[in-house]
Amino acid sequence: MARQDSRGSARVDPIGACPCGRGLPYPDCCGRLHSGAAQAPTAEALMRSRYAAFAVGDSDYLLRTWHTSTRPARLPLDPGQRWTGLEVVATEQGGLFDSTGTVEFRAHYREGTQTGTMTERSRFVRADGRWVYLDVDQP
C-alpha cells in the first residue's frame, strides 16, 4: 500500500488494493480522485477517498476536498500513524441528487505497537457542483 520515499512523502504500490476498502486497485479507485482525473459522485465516495488520502499521505487532496469555511491553512500528517482499515457504519443522503450528506465510519490505525479506532460522523456538502468535507457532526 503506502511507502515513504526519501523525502518522507507517501507513495502507493501501483498494483496494490486501494486503502478505501472497495477492493479495487488504487489507480482505478481513489487514485483517480487524488490525481484530479475524476470527482467523487457521492458523499460516501468522497469520505472513502479522503480516508485513502490519509492512508497514502496526500494532504493536498485532503485540503482540496475540504470546504473553504472550515478548511485549515495547512494539514501536517503524522508519518508514524498507519491507517489499516475502514468500515462505513451508516450514510444519510449524500447521493447523486443530494446537496448534503453524512457518513459515519470507523477508521482503524496503528501507531508504533499500539492500535486504535477513530469513529466519526462526517458532514459533507456540495460546493460548486462537487462534494466537499464540511465538518464533524457533533451530537
Automatic annotation (TrEMBL):
SUPFAM superfamilies: NTF2-like. Transmembrane segments: none annotated. InterPro entries: NTF2-like_dom_sf, YchJ-like, YchJ-like_M. Residues 42-135 form the YchJ-like middle NTF2-like domain. Belongs to the UPF0225 family. This is UPF0225 protein E0H26_00390. It comes from Micromonospora zingiberis. The lineage of its organism: Bacteria, Bacillati, Actinomycetota, Actinomycetes, Micromonosporales.
